[in-house]
Amino acid sequence: xxxGGGARYKDPTRxxxxxxxxxxxxxxxxxxxxxxxxxxxxxxxxxxxxxxxIGSVLSGGGSVPxxxxxxxxxxxxVNDMQGGALSTRLGIPMLYGIDxxxxxxxxxxxxxxxxxxxxxxxxxxxxxxxxxxxxALEVRATGIPYIFAPCVAVCRDPxxxxxxxxxxxxxxxxxxxxxxxxxxQGEIPAGGRKGVPFVASGGRRNVAACAKHYxxxxxxxxxxxxxxxxxxxxxxxxxxxxxxxxxxIRGVATVMVSYSSFNGVKMHANHFLVTDFLKKRLRxxxxxxxxxxxxxxxxxxxxxxxxxxxxxxxxxxxDMVMIPFNYTEFIDDLTLLVxxxxxxMSRIDDAVRRILRVxxxxxxxxxxxxxxxxxxxxxxxxxxxxxxxxxRKSLVLLKNGKPGxxxxxxxxxxxxxxxxxxxxxxxxxxxxxxxxxxxxWQGSTGNNNLTAxxxxxxxxxxxxxPAGTDVVYAGNPDADFVQRNKARFYYAIVVVGExxxxxxxxxxxxxxxxxxxxxxxxxxCGSIRCVVVIVSGRQLVVEPYLDAIDALVAxxxxxxxxxxxxxxxxxDYGFTGKLSRTWFRSVEQLPMNVGxxxxxxxxPFGFGLETQPSKF
Length: 616
Ligand SMILES: O=[N+]([O-])c1ccc(O[C@@H]2O[C@@H](CO)[C@H](O)[C@H](S[C@@H]3O[C@H](CO)[C@@H](O)[C@H](O)[C@H]3O)[C@@H]2O)cc1
Prior knowledge:
Elements: H1 16-26, H2 29-35, E1 37-40, H3 46-51, E2 56-59, H4 71-86, E3 95-98, H5 116-122, H6 125-140, E4 146-147, H7 171-177, H8 179-185, E5 210-214, E6 228-229, H9 233-240, H10 242-249, E7 254-257, E8 261-262, E9 265-266, H11 271-281, E10 287-289, H12 306-316, E11 321-322, H13 327-339, H14 345-361, H15 381-394, E12 396-400, E13 419-423, H16 430-434, H17 456-464, E14 470-474, H18 479-485, E15 489-497, H19 517-525, E16 530-535, E17 551-554, H20 563-569
Parallel strand pairs: 1-2, 1-11, 2-3, 3-4, 5-7, 6-8, 7-10, 13-14, 13-15, 15-16, 16-17
Antiparallel strand pairs: 8-9, 12-17
Helix pairs in contact: 1-14, 5-15, 6-8, 6-15, 7-10, 11-12, 12-13, 15-20, 17-20
Bound molecules: the ligand O=[N+]([O-])c1ccc(O[C@@H]2O[C@@H](CO)[C@H](O)[C@H](S[C@@H]3O[C@H](CO)[C@@H](O)[C@H](O)[C@H]3O)[C@@H]2O)cc1.
The ligand O=[N+]([O-])c1ccc(O[C@@H]2O[C@@H](CO)[C@H](O)[C@H](S[C@@H]3O[C@H](CO)[C@@H](O)[C@H](O)[C@H]3O)[C@@H]2O)cc1 binds next to loops.
């Protein structure tokens, strides 16, 4: 029977804690454990959600209702699942989560913003907050109220495959960029309580956020993904913990635990850091969520002893488990561990209390269903313009003219009867300029129907063809092509870089520019004045080519609004970006970060040449 009826917890005028206490007091163990369970979209039928009292569903990387699904299809999917949750005895709404780590990346035609490494180079917390607000609208356009962002990792080694998800190697810069949380969730009202979960629930134009991955994910040995962060407690607190202070003060609703370990102890089993430090010392009042199969990976091999994994993870202080597939096994095992006294009910109640606090605070009980009223926010031109501004401000100018030469940038839009050459694979590749976590988990190369956006080449053409300049594109010009044609080219723009990747697939110990990039640089820049634009998730080896290059620009992973690069190359805007990371000379130096006793970079943290907008 539906006891929820006129119960106090359903009354939004009652105090938050009274609602939580009333509801918690009515819940069976099965209902409590259901709230702690997050399952994958493909398992989440309304019947499963109803039968197991499932509290949360996620889309893992690339998990979509259909290829190129429009907002309406997402809204329908989420609402159907919600119907399953609301038809349970107590009618507790389920919370749908997704990775929106550089815009609503899984969704076709969403605006894709620069990845965090580029946002760090803008040095503009206000811009990044505006990006958060725009992303929240695009996520809500699809009926989703919760995102697994921002990643507040302090990446200390660019060999890490996730370094592009980190705003910087410098904890203070990452702290400043936590302004994105206030964009996602809304700003805590003046006089409002700091340090407690806050999601502006009024207009339903905000989303609950998730600071990840707690803690030290960016400090693993050799930058190996999900590996061991060996450091003193003082180093952990001074390098990797600071962004969590800011996230908690800004009212972040959730924190996700890292796959990595701290001095050999898996973070997913780390009671001292999750409970004693985050929950007690920092007084974090939202809920702690595991990473995807994070409990399974407590043991080696993973899932070798799931009962042990659950015991260690839940006792460490994890409140919600991103299972995501074997939910019956998880529910049965956790039930057993509570019934045999291994896990006290007080721990379960703490977890559920935190989950309910977030759901009540964000207004999910009052507004459990999505609607399509915000569908027009997805990929809205205003958001694309904001992304284009972010691209402009993220670019870092590392060289501008050879010694004794006048600066090459800004480039003239007129080629005075000649042509300009655009070369390199990454000039005309929307997928590569977006990087990982785009439509699919790993992202993909190419343009074909990936999503809606503007390649760097498109942007260049739009900028200078109206001035009568002829643009020639050659993805991989050989020396013969260049020799035969060099006289006709006034200058060349060479765009090279990395293919898309995510996580372990991006772990890389040599960090060389992938072939045929170096050959394109040598072939073109050896004969024609050139600016090289590097599209990558991190710094790469460039010193061997530097003398041959007239100008060098780091563009990182700019996303769908590639015309932001032409805006600055041709002087509509000046270069203002500053390195968010040290640019090494060789990988033998790594890890090497600003503040290190021995610091011999090719370009130091904070470096970036500037240009003035040109009038013509
Ligand atoms: O411990 N380990 O070595 C390990 C290695 C690979 C794993 O494999 C796993 O399989 C992938 C299958 O899709 C998952 O995406 C996750 S990634 C995960 O997904 C979340 C939800 O999308 C994001 O919010 C997180 O930020 C991200 O870290 C992981 O890589 C799992 C564990």
